[in-house]
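Ticket #4471: structure export looks truncated?
Reporter: QA, pipeline team
Priority: medium

Steps to reproduce: submit the single chain below to the structure queue and open the exported record.
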Amino acid sequence: MAHVFITGASGYMGRSLITALLARGHQVRGLVRAGSQHKLPAGCEAVIGDALNAASYVEAIAPTDTFIHLVGVPHPNPSKAKQFETIDLASAKIAAKNARAAGIRHFIYVSVAQPAPVMQSYIAARATAEQAIREEGLNATILRPWYVLGPGHRWPYLLLPIAWLLERLPGTRETARRLGFVTLDEMTATLCRAVESPASGIQILAVANIREWARR
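Actual output as written to the record:
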């Protein structure tokens, strides 16, 4: 049984992951802002704090052994470039620093597939966050999905036939596989397996790895 601390716990991916972790017998604490505790699945212990304020939650992390950082701007697009720096990157740096201070054994971070021809500011923020995790000396699993299909995130289903074709053409295969879609269920299953298989050093899970881990 793992003791898991999750930032971004009340979000799109957080709620699904918490439900799955609790069902597998893990203990989960979720960081939420005051007034949002009702969004957490039953059985998850709420920690009231601000992901952008290190002091608001650092003392509440222990005795956690696994830290999962899920904070990010919802529905990212190029117009949100500034928010990628002030929210996504800033919160990740704080999370990594707090995790090291708390003696976390395993840090899990959801990044983004890279390189890519679009969303450069988003990718830059996530890549810089990955570097911050390395600089803190954490054992970490870093997931690199491109787009996560699920409730409220379904429009790309229309593109799946094109994505399937591009993955099979020699000239586009590598890029299409790196920037392929994964589902919320696949992300949830892979994150659970990452919790149960802590990394030693830095472990990167690209789209193909996420799909594979979800099938295990």
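Status: closed, not a bug. The export was complete when the record was re-opened. Leaving a note from the reviewer for reference: The radius of gyration is 17 Å.
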